[in-house]
Amino acid sequence: MTAPTAPMAPTGAIPPTGLLLYDGECGFCVAAMRWGRRFARSPARTRPWQEANLAELGVAEEDCRQAVQWLSPSGRSAGAAAVRDYLASGRTVSRLV
After folding, report:
1. Chain centre distance of CA 23
2. What is the pLDDT of the chain when averaged over all its residues?
3. 3-state SS assignment for residue 18
């Protein structure tokens, strides 16, 4: 996981199963999330960053504009590492990642 670019959120703000923030206004991102949810079968939550309380989560809007964000109680990652971490949290892919 990469080092946080913003202060970590209070533990209660991040679901214990993790949270993947993606761009809800990007058609590719939305389609990729639909596929990812079906394929990974992850208990983690997914949410468009535009609908999330970024201040409560400790994430900068600019970070979300640049890359998908993975938040979990154990850390934070962005971009391809965030996708890897989300997929690894799932029941299907965790054995492959």
Report:
1. 11
2. 85
3. coil
